[in-house]
Amino acid sequence: MTLDIKKLFAERVKCVRVLVVGDLMLDRYWFGDVHRISPEAPVPVVKIDRVDDRLGGAGNVARNLSVLGAGVSLLSVIGNDEPGRALQRLLSEEGVDASLYEDLNFDTIVKLRVIGRQQQLLRIDFEKAPSAAILKTKLAEFRQRVLDCDVVIISDYGKGGVTHVAEMIQLARNAGKPVLVDPKGDDYGKYAGANVITPNRSELRQVVGNWSSEVELERKARQLRDDLRIDALLLTRSEEGMTVFSGSPSVAIPAQIREVFDVSGAGDTVIAVLGLILALGIDVVDACRVANVGAGIVVGKLGTAVVTPEELCAAFESLYGR
Ligand SMILES: Nc1ncnc2c1ncn2[C@@H]1O[C@H](COP(=O)(O)OP(=O)(O)OP(=O)(O)O)[C@@H](O)[C@H]1O
Ligand SMILES: [Mg+2]
């Protein structure tokens, strides 16, 4: 491979401007100790002594990009509440130019995990779909912001924050900007015309049904790609790595075998790295190889689901040489 990744990161990445749109959420952890069972019900009582807040969903994609050195703006919706303010603060700490619409009738999406003695006891989700009026305002801002970016990443977590995804793709394409989508749900018609979609195995199964062989998968993936007029379908396959369906034939990229600590957020790293490298004009298969290396590093880390440019460059060069 002739990709000089160190040079890309040293010279060009800082000039890339990425626009991230999508479902923003707060990953909140309550840590505590369990000493007794509640007298009210047969459940443990957790005495909380530490709280940890992290950017989730589109926020985690933006954070990954910022750590890699790109310029990032994020367009999303929050409620007029404490978790919304926590998200604002985390994004500004990460250097993300966030434009968050406050919807008075919306609760900021929070995934709250209660952890007692290293063990997750409960997860509590707060979520509500944002109002149509707010989303319309957001679309109007997208129309402006798309002109100032090099690539658009749409992070759809199925929470209702990207109802106008079809219009966004159209606007981006009309402006000549590549669009990548991390999809959700059973109707991918709305993603038609995007350049790249990055479903995982269960997301792809939801739209094309199950497959019993690689041949059948190839046929189904190609059909979907043709139907949606997309350039590349990147199937992420957890411990099996990934498969890129772009030109024929498809390309399988094996997972980096390492000790796995925390797989959550790997998909966010994949789309962040892929979008960044594609914005530099690199071929999609090479860009997927870089994204696969990035995701492999992230799953080997506990907690901080991001990869630094130094880690990414070192791992990529040791695998593919220069
Ligand atoms: N167990 C694993 N071992 C090695 N690599 C992994 C593992 N799980 C994930 N990866 C890497 O991360 C990439 C994305 O993982 P996956 O297909 O699970 O995405 P995802 O389901 O969208 O993740 P999430 O939604 O949790 O962020 C894979 O293509 C692979 O490179
Ligand atoms: Mg995912």
Summarize the structure.
The chain has 322 residues and is of the alpha/beta class. The chain has ten helices and 13 strands. α2 (58-67) packs across α8 (266-279), α8 packs antiparallel against α9 (284-299) and α9 (284-299) packs across α10.
Describe it.
The protein has a 9-stranded mixed β-sheet, with helices on both faces. Strands 3-2-6-7 form a 4-stranded mixed β-sheet. The chain has one domain: 3-Layer(aba) Sandwich (UDP-N-acetylmuramoyl-L-alanine:D-glutamate ligase). Helix 2 crosses helix 8, helix 8 packs antiparallel against helix 9 and helix 9 packs across helix 10. It has 10 helices and 13 strands. The N and C termini lie close together (7 Å). It has 322 residues and is an alpha/beta fold. It is globular. The protein binds adenosine-5'-triphosphate (ATP) and magnesium ion (MG). The site of adenosine-5'-triphosphate has 21 residues, from helix 8 and helix 9.
Number of helices: 10
Bound ligands: adenosine-5'-triphosphate, magnesium ion
The whole-number mean of residue pLDDT values reads 95
Question: What structural class results from the helix and strand content?
Answer: alpha/beta
Helical fraction equals 25-40%
Corresponding CATH architecture = 3-Layer(aba) Sandwich
Estimate the global geometry from the Cα principal axes. Answer: globular
Number of domains: 1
Radius of gyration using CA atoms only: 20 Å
CATH superfamily: Ribokinase
Strand order of the largest sheet: 5-4-1-8-9-10-11-12-13
Tell me the distance between the termini: 7 Å
CATH topology: UDP-N-acetylmuramoyl-L-alanine:D-glutamate ligase
Order of helix and strand elements from N to C terminus: HEEEHEHEEEHEHEEHHEEEHHH
Number of strands: 13
Q: In this structure, how is the largest beta sheet organized?
A: 9 strands, mixed
Query: Strand share of the residues?
Result: 25-35%
Any idea of the CATH class? Answer: Alpha Beta
